[in-house]
């Protein structure tokens, strides 16, 4: 998720290493030669995914096609049901580029099962040649969770080969379904598949990923409110704070370096933000001095230097911004100043471009974005009520709740192309948190 | 006001129970002293003009005893019912829910009255411990509403402490919008859900209404 702002430190995808290219440790942008040259984020590229032979070949092709479709950077071109031989070039090697060219494909992808993985070749249709190849390890557990994640990584690398930007298919989304004692935490793949229930304490809310995607912080409501961290691989929860008499913990996020958790702590003197080591043990350090008001829902800038949060010093929830040590507090959303304002749920984008949040407009809640400087606010939704935005690692896809179909579901919006897609099919889904790119296992 | 009228109602109820018991007690003729204190009289050995009057006196005595027993039973039932009503009324007053305006934690006059009614009961029952649960309606941020719920609970606690209740007897928790009592997205449902609930967590047996 991106409620926390993770460091951009990204372990180089093993496949990239295999083909002799190094992904930068600081940047997910591909520096090699891409198929399309300078990438315009609003353009879409026609791509053909050739049939994949062997066990689970159809599943692999379907997953990759869907991932590239959901990236909102590609148009998936379907092949007719004709003779597969027509896909090959006359010489037997290479592809029938003229056919793909007629289909308006700029790229064709060949995926071949080899040993313990997949061999992938990207063809430049215009140049009639292979411009990139890679080998991707895939566990022999098809069609299990790790196997699907490995296939998603293939999709993400194909996207990087074409556009220069690593995709977000190999990510997961944690969310809560239901309310109160019936609330259950779930995790799904970015395409909505592969749902698992994460065992949490009663009334577990506000899941938030660490920058490595290995841990989820959450809090519990009601009696014995606590701050916990769950190890995603083992499902083991560990208490970091609470229970404390007359104290409620809420809205935890990891700091950008992953070493700490910032959370809200409500008590007799209002609600303030605190910081605690991600391994617990130390005394929480207070960041805000509310004096009887509520300061909640923190989100940290990618560089870890600033924090945006919700405060109600003005008598209503507004977004505030401060240094990460709690100094230099300012109102971020000081535009359209009104007692009727209600602004909440901020999430700082991983690319540092925007802060997404929820705002009440004409009595309904909508997702809006604003620059970290507080300028250029822009509504992103209008249909139904839309709340709780959470950025994907690419900083262009937004996860949020929407009632546009009549019941609350999780949806995804691509802010470049304005395409909406429904992610969940289980009503009452909420508090979604998009993971960082998952490099483990 | 509510507390005062409840007490008045109780008093009326108790009085009417006594009145009813009095009605059941029919006027009984006093038995003859000689009959009550003299040697046992057996009807088989006695005959003559006195026989009927003796039998009548015995029947009167039996009826009197039965009626006396019935009266005592009714009195004790009435007393138990009154005590139960007191405890029940005390419990109802202690756990009476209060409500809030949208996105507010201020106490309205009518809700302060409901809190006022809790104070003497808390003082009369020093063993009672209360958990104050803050709740919100479903509008607005799910997460911000957790803080708002805690603020509502804390505001209620502050009020009770200011009116003499020991802070250590009051615990605050928040459920935010997680536990609505009314379903649906109507203003009526929202108004019911913006509330503070009171749960007796200890000392809830045999509550007394007054110190």
Would you kindly provide a written description of the structure presented here, covering whatever features stand out?
- The complex is a heterodimer of chains A (441) and B (211).
- With 441 residues, chain A is mostly beta strands.
- Helices cover 10% and strands 38% of the residues of chain A.
- Chain A has helices at 14-18, 57-70, 97-102, 145-163; strands at residues 45-49, 74-76, 107-114, 117-124, 129-137, 172-177, 184-189, 196-198, 204-209, 215-220, 227-231, 236-241, 248-254, 260-267, 270-277, 285-286, 295-300, 306-311, 318-323, 330-331, 343-348, 355-361, 364-370, 378-379, 386-391, 397-402, 409-414, 419-422, 429-434.
- Chain A is elongated, with a radius of gyration of 23 Å.
- Chain B has 211 residues and is of the alpha+beta class.
- Chain B folds into two domains: 2-90; 96-202, 60s Ribosomal Protein L30, Chain: A.
- In chain B, 55% of the residues lie in helices and 11% in strands.
- Chain B has six helices and four strands.
- Chain B has helices at 2-24, 33-37, 51-95, 109-124, 142-162, 187-193, and strands at 98-99, 129-135, 170-176, 195-202.
- In chain B, β2 (129-135), α5 (142-162) and β3 form a beta-alpha-beta unit.
- The model of chain B is unreliable at 1-43 (pLDDT under 50).
- Chain A binds chain B through residues 179-181, 183, 203, 205-206, 221-223, 225, 245-246, 248, 250-251, 264, 266-268, 270-271, 294, 296-297, 310, 316-317, 342, 344-345, 358, 360, 365, 387-388, 430-431, and chain B through 103, 131, 133, 139-144, 146-151, 154, 157-158, 171-180.
């Amino acid at each position: 998720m991106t409620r926390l702002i993770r460091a951009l430190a990204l372990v180089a995808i093993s496949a990239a290493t295999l083909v002799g290219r190094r992904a930068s440790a600081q940047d997910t942008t591909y520096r090699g030669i891409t198929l399309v040259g300078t990438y315009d984020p609003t353009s879409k590229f026609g791509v053909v995914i050739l049939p994949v032979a062997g066990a689970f070949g159809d599943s692999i092709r379907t997953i990759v096609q869907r991932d590239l479709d959901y990236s909102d950077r590609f148009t998936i071109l379907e092949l007719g049901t004709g003779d597969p031989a027509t896909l090959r070039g006359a010489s037997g090697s290479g592809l029938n580029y003229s056919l793909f060219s007629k289909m308006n494909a700029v790229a064709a992808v060949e995926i071949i099962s080899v040993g313990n993985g997949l061999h992938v070749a990207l063809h430049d249709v215009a140049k009639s040649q292979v411009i990139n190849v890679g080998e991707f390890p895939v566990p022999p557990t098809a069609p299990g969770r790790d196997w699907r994640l490995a296939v998603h990584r293939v999709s993400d690398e194909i996207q990087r080969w074409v556009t220069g930007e690593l995709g977000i298919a190999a990510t997961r989304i944690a969310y809560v379904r239901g309310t109160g004692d019936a609330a259950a935490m779930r995790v799904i793949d970015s395409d909505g598949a592969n749902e698992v229930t994460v065992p949490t304490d009663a009334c577990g809310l506000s899941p938030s990923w660490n920058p490595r995607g290995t841990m989820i912080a959450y809090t519990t409501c009601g009696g014995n409110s606590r701050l916990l961290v769950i190890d995603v691989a083992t499902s083991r929860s560990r208490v970091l704070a609470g229970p404390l008499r007359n104290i409620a913990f809420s809205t935890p996020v990891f700091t950008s370096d992953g070493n700490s958790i910032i959370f809200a702590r409500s008590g007799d003197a209002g609600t303030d933000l605190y910081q605690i080591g991600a391994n617990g043990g130390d005394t929480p350090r207070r960041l805000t001095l509310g004096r009887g008001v509520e300061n909640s829902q923190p989100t940290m800038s990618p560089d870890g230097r600033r924090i945006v949060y919700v405060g109600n010093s003005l008598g209503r929830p507004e977004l505030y911004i401060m240094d990460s040590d709690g100094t230099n507090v300012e109102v971020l959303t000081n535009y359209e100043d009104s007692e009727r304002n209600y602004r909440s749920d901020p999430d700082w984008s991983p690319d540092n471009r925007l802060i997404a949040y929820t705002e009440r407009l004409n009595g309904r809640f909508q997702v809006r974005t604003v620059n970290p400087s507080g300028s250029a606010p822009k509504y992103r939704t209008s249909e139904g009520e839309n709340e709780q935005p959470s950025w994907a690692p690419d900083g262009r896809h937004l996860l949020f709740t929407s009632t546009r179909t009549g019941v609350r579901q999780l949806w995804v919006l691509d802010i470049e192309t304005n395409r909406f897609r429904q992610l969940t099919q289980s009503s009452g889904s909420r508090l979604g948190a998009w993971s960082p790119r998952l490099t483990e296992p | 006001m509510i507390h005062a009228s409840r007490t008045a109602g109780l008093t009326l109820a108790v009085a009417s129970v006594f009145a009813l018991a009095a009605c059941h007690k029919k006027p009984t003729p006093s038995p003859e002293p000689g009959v009550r204190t003299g040697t046992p009289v057996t009807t088989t050995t006695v005959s003559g003009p006195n026989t009927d009057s003796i039998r009548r006196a015995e029947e009167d005595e039996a009826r009197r005893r039965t009626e006396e027993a019935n009266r005592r039973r009714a009195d004790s039932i009435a007393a138990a019912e009154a005590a139960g009503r007191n405890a029940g009324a005390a419990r109802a007053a202690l756990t009476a829910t209060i409500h809030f305006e949208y996105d507010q934690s201020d106490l309205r006059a009518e809700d302060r009255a409901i809190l006022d009614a809790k104070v003497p009961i808390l003082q009369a029952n020093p063993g009672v411990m209360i958990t104050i649960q803050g709740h919100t309606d479903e509008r607005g941020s799910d997460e911000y509403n957790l803080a708002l719920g805690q603020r509502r609970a804390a505001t209620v606690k502050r009020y009770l402490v200011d009116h003499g209740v020991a802070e250590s007897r009051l615990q605050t928790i928040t459920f935010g919008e997680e536990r609505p009592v009314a379903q649906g997205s109507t203003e009526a449902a929202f108004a019911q859900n913006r509330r503070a609930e009171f749960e007796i967590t200890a000392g809830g047996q045999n509550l007394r209404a007054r110190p």
